[in-house]
Amino acid sequence: SENLGGVRVLMDVLWKLFTRRKTFMENEKHREIMEETVHKTMHSDNYYHVPFVESIIEVLTDLCIGSDNRAVRVVQDLIAKELLLTNEAAAVRRRPEPENDLNPWADYAIDVDEHKRHIEKSKRALAELFGRKDEFTLLKLGTLAFFDPHDRDMELSEGVKIPQVLWMQSRAQPPRFACGTYKDDVAQRVGSKISQERFLYFALVNLLGHLCADRHALNSKMILEHIPHFVLKTQLIQDETLANAGMKFTPTGSKIQQWVLQQPETESRDLGDISDLSGLASHTALLLHGLLGQPPFTDEELRSTIIKQVYLDGSRADDDDTVFEEQGPFLALQEDHLVGLCHMCSWQLAALAELCENLVEFRGEAQPRPQVKFTDYCSALVSSLSKMQSKLIGLGYFERFRRDLTLKNQMTPDYTNIYQIEHLVTIFEKMHALQKKHPAITTSLYLAGLTDVCRVINKCCSLSVNENIGQFMNCFSEFLPPQAKAQMRGEKIVGEHIPGGGEPDKPITTFEVEESEHMEKVLVDLMKTSLPWEVEETSQSESLEKLANFVLVLLDFVSLNDSALAIQAVQLLSRLCRRRKDFLEAIDDIQLLAVGDHDKFNSLEPWVKECDRVIDRLNQIEANAEQDKWYLKKEGLEHYAPEVKPIDWNQDDLESNKGRFIEERDEKERIIEYTMKEQYRQVVVRIHPSNLQEGKHVSNFDFDIRGTQKTDALREGKGTEDQGEEKAAEKDDEATEGAAENESSFAPLFVGVISSSWNPPSNREEDSADFRLQRLQAPTEFFGCDEMGKLYIRGQPIKETFGGFAQGNCVGLELDYSEPANAKLFIYVDGYRVAAIDREMEEGLIPCVIMTSLQQIVKLQQGRPRRGKGLLIRNPMDTRVEENLLAVSITYDVLLDTFYKQFPGTDRPNELLYQGWNSSFCTSSIDRRTEYISKIKAFKNTLEPRKVSSWCINCSLTGHYLESARFVRGARIAAQKAFISFYTNTSTHMHRSVAKDWKTLYKQEGEKTVESGLVYVDINPNLLYGATQVYVCFNEEDPAQLSPEQDPEITMHLKLTQLLPVREERSQLVKLFNHFTAVCRQGDGHLLKYHKVEILALRVLTFLRSTPALCEALLTKPANTGAETPFDVSVRFLQVFSQLQPMYRQLFIRGDVVRFLVRSLPHPDMGLSKFMVHVFDRNDEAI
Hints:
By secondary structure, this protein is an alpha+beta fold. The protein is built from 42 helices and 34 strands.
């Protein structure tokens, strides 16, 4: 992460090198090159030196892998994002001038008018418009600049298949030779110059492969989205990889190549040059990291190469893989492909070993040092093949295919050579001999190849241990009772009858064991001082000699001063020295299963996997809850739900202007109106300074625009100007002239903040002509906006604008002093943030309105500010406690257009919450795309001042979740159908509940219960489960037509719970561990041990130390039920397991486990004490 700045610089360099074309292209033409009809015929036109571009890509590939041979995830993420996601417009902006100014997208703005034009074309046009820039990624632009289009006519004329670019099938891979054709092969043009673009293409393939290294599933998915499925199967796997298996490589112009070309059996298609070395290595790397190293294939690090679980017949119990059965044909890599990869690795490594031998001495003649480039590409291929074989061995396919051939009696000598590891040892020794012959061959790629071969040989030592375990199990089966042998053979036993008459029991004695042929093979192999893979027929002297030579090779590699190679060499040397210990430890740890346990063992796997997934989901729910808290803090919602206090105008401003310039139409509602008929001065009305609380970093104020000067002609003229020349010509000239005339005399309404040092003008100044002209301008100390959308800093307009506001809109101001040195002013219109001013702001600014013309009427809103987050509820100021739950009641007064907090059952009066119906509006109450489009439009167009059709009640700030909800309205709504519906932030707007089961609400009058004239409906609890926001949709009604006569009360009653939404996970864990307990009681506890279920139980108990919210959610039992908690059932399972399987209690006596259990005892009694008694009862290991 410390070098990300340097990686970003390299990516900027690659943007420059890889995308620049030699021929200048006009911006309009450039924006069309991603259209299919254009790029299919556009030829390559690269500007920069190809090897230089290739070297940058190779550096980026090296940066993806760290010094510890592990992928550097942050570097992978950055390169993948720049290569596949970041568009040209975004990448160019961060470059210095003049490159920034050359951005072809700089003058291409997607505005509202263009939205409308595209919407009229087709339904998908808007989505295509948004994604147009995103097509211009680095990978696509570079492919278009460096590679020619794929020409099918040329393919037919040349009579060969022209290989296409994997990620862009419309472009062709470069031919083998510069200025050559696709028919050329190595035998025809010996010594010809190889195309540099060919190396560049293979470097790109290699980079894509390494972006997926170490199971980077996200990058793999992103890359495979660019490569069609049929291309993966036919081109990548078959044509580029498996079809090249067995290819022979020779240095260009060498005696080896001349001799090979003279041989009559040599076929040109089997000869390769250094570009073929690079191609096979890069495609193998992409295949390895992008497909085989990704889900659904198992993680190699989670599976032991040495046998851990085995059936009585010697087959592995931990080798059951259902990838191909589950995925079927949807998986690009099929089983026959993996067989081919096993064969390819063996054949190719054997051929490369022969090549290394010939590079040292060929036909009795010492050979000169090969070119560095040739040895480097050879080493890259050795490295890719070694990693591929290591992966195949680690996943068990290598052993499985060998075992299948043996069982089918198809293990011919050719197959025997394939499934041996001699070729790995040979390539290791031959590369050592080449390095000894030419000591200067110590490039990083050559040493990396040696390191990878060393690593895979280390893994092959485990195969030798498995062979000895197989012999041990064959010996073990000789001593089984006849009944067990019959079961192992799959024979059915009826009563005491044993098929075949049975066999006599073989006594288990030292003599009988040593007499066993299988045990003798194990003892002979382990007693011999030899390499683990040595064949049985090798004599002791030959074994000693080979071992000594191999150890000398390892010591030579240790002396090469390469840390990675030295570490692997020492680890392999250590492995050779402890092969007996490896076998004894494996036998000691092995877990034995009866042949009849096969189905039971496999049937338990889905239960265990589900339990693991449920525990992971609980952890994820806990993490999501913490993340939501962090997001709420970052979003600053608490600033939009402060304590509601009365807000008032500055009385000095009102008194000094009242009667002459403004009138206070409604003192209680704080509504003021401009009344000066002459309209020769502007009036600044500030809020009272006491409303700006000291120490409060963020302050919010809202102004309801009740009236503005009639500006229809002006707005029409302004709109005409924005619509472009074509639409402007269609408008009436008189309307445009009228708009211009009005604009010269129009004085807008200003809303913003003004410096505390500003003073109102004196009476003497009012008589001057200059003063009257200033009515049209903002004061010099003003920061804010006017109703036309212009923004002002210190009274001066700036070029940035927004859509403005009109009568009926609510304009909000947010003063942010959280960073005193960087104060900010945010402007909202009806909940949408439309502008931000963060320049030259100072402390002590006071919100104000500046009125300049008749008909301008403004109301200072009370209550909480409207910020498009819905009706925000806070705890404890808005809640009360009912039945151990938090309760909230919000009522809307139709007459006063105000939301109040209700406190039913108490004498406490209703308290003001919000003013205005649209206070309930939430910008996210619709689908995500519509939300984004609405926000974008708010920057350009004036928002229509109409009442919204939905409420949002947002309880996120309480930290609680919705438990139940009741909606109350006037009785007339009960006769309507589908007028009201509900949804939540978890159900989304696509899943709603319609209010239809209305019930009459009764009230108490004295001793009588009478109808209240109201009805209510209870919202489905399943819809509310896990939600923090509930939406009320008024589907068929016009909110503007509501009346207090028909709806004397519109109320929402909510009950909240602090328990996390883990109901499903909780019940699932109870079912799972009840099942595990039953399995243990029926005598199959050893199978649970092999699946490590006791560790899952301990993982459940760790939730006792989780956050209080999750712990309480799991501990709390449903009311009036005898339900158990997950802790109860997991502890009961541990009790039964430790009692019935005492031989497996060693995990529970570990110090850290004991300390954890002791610390968990203070929690409610769940049987932990009894479990610990079972753990220590007659347990000698616990002493």
